[in-house]
Design brief:
The protein is elongated and about 105 Å long. Helices cover 56% and strands 12% of the residues. The protein contains 15 helices and ten strands. It has an eight-stranded antiparallel sheet. A two-stranded antiparallel ribbon has the order 5-6.
């Protein structure tokens, strides 16, 4: 049985000795979870490109002379699939079908269909098998398919992962600068165990910053305390509610509140505001076409438009585009919001946001790798592969050392026994 506790070496400091033991124990404890999380993350990096490739035939359409109004397509979708609260993606390319997606939280059912905007027909649906596969992969990545307990295990394992990265740097750090050169190269021509050691230590060193970023952004979604800490650090306000929840402070909702105040004052105060609210219950029959035209007018660059209906997070229709006019070519979200009558009640340009909102609004694509398109997705894919391999190569390193120690111990015992027999 391999030992989990070794003696301190003569020339080894107590700090490095303790880091070595904790690196070993925590690594073995969390290895299986980290392999699952990193492996599923590797798959999820290319979720959208894989889906696009599999639906290529129904997404690519022939451009016609006139487009069917988006509100008509949405009504057809509701009639055909029985779903009202749908997310619509209108592609920037004129030869791509419009995507309708619905997730029913009560039944767990997902509907993903593509409509031809020139004929008004639905060209086809995304494979239920593909939808289920990526849905289960995401659930495995976030909470090991078990809500509550699984989420806690993934969160704790992620914290351990961050510690392993930092302690790994301590263990990798050479005693002398002359040894630094060897610690920066992978000896691909070496024997298996030496190559495995380099893949664990050297590759782990080069990928440490990227992997730490992935783990830290993962904690952002796992723990509300981390989200609130990020907001507070960047100057945002966090209000503690009576039920123990948290929300943005007044300053973070300033743009939306100013827009709503302007709309109310334009209707003539509180009395007219009440009449306006009653009128607002009647949805503008061309609300989607109105919003699509307005968002393209507000933000004139070329981009897909993602439309979300009123629901849990917003009472209005949200029309969002992604601005890539920046140094990194990152997808920066910008949107307008309309009430049911088609009146604009909010506008968010990325440049106008406070620092905490700029960071939190792109936190999800920064974690998934979608933030800069293919370059960032390829980088994240490589990082996830490395993250998946580190627990495996680390286990091999430990097991090989223990095997050598056992052989040495057995040899010493046999020599001692032989000497005693001679006496």
């Amino acid at each position: 049985m391999p030992s989990l506790l070794r003696k301190k070496k003569a020339n080894e400091s107590y700090v490095k000795y303790l880091f070595n033991l904790s690196h070993l124990w925590l690594g073995l404890l969390s290895s299986l979870v980290l392999i699952i999380v990193c492996l599923t993350g590797t798959i999820l990096v290319f979720e959208q490109p894989i889906k696009d490739a599999l639906t290529k035939e129904i997404r690519n359409i022939e451009v016609g002379s006139e487009r069917v109004p988006l509100d008509v397509l949405k009504a057809k979708y509701t009639k055909q699939y029985g779903e009202e609260n749908v997310r619509i993606t209108v592609p920037a390319e004129s030869n791509k079908a419009i995507h309708f997606f619905t997730f029913n939280r009560q039944t767990g059912e997902r509907v993903s269909a593509y409509a031809n905007p020139y004929t008004g027909d639905f060209a086809g649906e995304e494979s239920e098998t593909v939808i289920t596969f990526f849905s289960n992969t995401l659930r495995m990545h976030r909470w090991l398919l078990v809500r509550g307990t699984g989420k806690a295990i993934v969160g704790i394992s992620t914290i351990i992962f961050l510690f392993l990265l930092l302690s790994g740097i301590v263990l990798w750090w050479p005693k002398r600068w002359k040894q630094l050169k060897n610690g920066l190269k992978v000896k691909f021509k070496a024997k298996f165990y030496r190559l495995n050691y380099d893949l664990h230590s050297v590759v782990g060193f080069y990928s440490m910053i990227g992997l730490f970023f992935l783990g830290a952004t993962g904690l952002y979604f796992a723990y509300p305390q981390v989200r609130n800490g990020v907001k507070a650090t960047l100057g945002g306000e966090v209000v503690v509610q009576a039920n123990g929840g948290h929300q943005h402070g007044p300053r973070n909702n300033q743009n939306a509140q100013n827009s709503l105040n302007t709309a109310n004052s334009g209707r003539g105060g509180q009395a007219k505001g009440k009449r306006g609210n009653r009128a607002g219950n009647r949805t503008n029959p061309t609300i989607l076409e109105t919003g699509l035209a307005k968002v393209n007018q507000e933000f004139e660059y070329r981009s897909d438009v993602v439309i979300t209906m009123p629901g849990r997070r917003s009472n209005g229709y949200k029309f969002q585009k992604y601005n890539r006019d920046n140094t990194l070519g990152a997808y920066l979200p910008e949107y307008i919001e309309l009430n049911r009558r088609g009146k604009q009640i909010n506008r968010q340009a990325y440049a106008d946001l406070a620092m905490d909102q700029k960071v939190t609004s792109i936190m999800r694509p920064m974690h998934t790798g979608e933030i800069a398109g293919w370059p960032s997705m390829i980088l994240y894919f490589i990082l996830c592969i490395i993250g998946t391999s580190l627990p495996i190569t680390g286990f091999v390193v430990w097991y090989k050392r223990e095997a050598k120690a056992r052989v040495k111990s057995d040899s010493h015992r046999m020599n001692r026994k032989s000497q005693l027999q001679q006496i």
